[in-house]
Inverse folding.
């Protein structure tokens, strides 16, 4: 009886494992994209940072500015991704076993992971930009 039951659920189990693997790969690609986009965004604004510092901005004021602007982009992207994921769950509902269509724990964990990665990805280059000599930053532009 167990063999008959296993034979009947093997195809569904394979699909679930395959979709989970694709989901993990997509999450890793999203993390890599966020982690590469944030430093690029900071580097594109090196001249602006130099101008702000020359005009009297303190490094403690520049750090939150850079982080807030990068997090704005991340939150917009996360919102669009969340909306797309909610739409896609209707299609995948036949394959999901043991979780609801809109499992809040899964969505919350993925969003929290992306936000933490984005914070780290923004914080590290922003700290470097704070320590930059304003004349060097102006020369980069």
């Amino acid at each position: 009886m167990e063999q008959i039951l296993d034979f009947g659920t093997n195809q569904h189990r394979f699909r679930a494992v395959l979709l989970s693997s694709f989901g993990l790969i997509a999450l890793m690609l999203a993390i890599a994209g966020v982690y590469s986009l944030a430093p690029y965004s900071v580097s594109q604004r090196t001249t602006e940072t130099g101008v702000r510092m020359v005009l009297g901005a303190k490094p403690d004021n520049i750090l939150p500015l850079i982080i807030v602007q990068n997090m704005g982009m991340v939150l917009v992207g996360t919102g669009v991704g969340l909306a797309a994921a909610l739409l896609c769950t209707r299609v995948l509902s036949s394959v999901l076993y043991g979780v609801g269509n809109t499992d809040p724990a899964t969505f919350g964990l993925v969003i929290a992971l992306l936000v933490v990665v984005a914070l780290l990805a923004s914080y590290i280059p922003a700290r470097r930009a704070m320590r930059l000599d304003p004349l060097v930053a102006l020369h980069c532009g």
Remarks:
- The radius of gyration is 22 Å.
- Residues 26 and 123 are 24 Å apart (CA to CA).
- DSSP finds five helices and no strands in the chain.
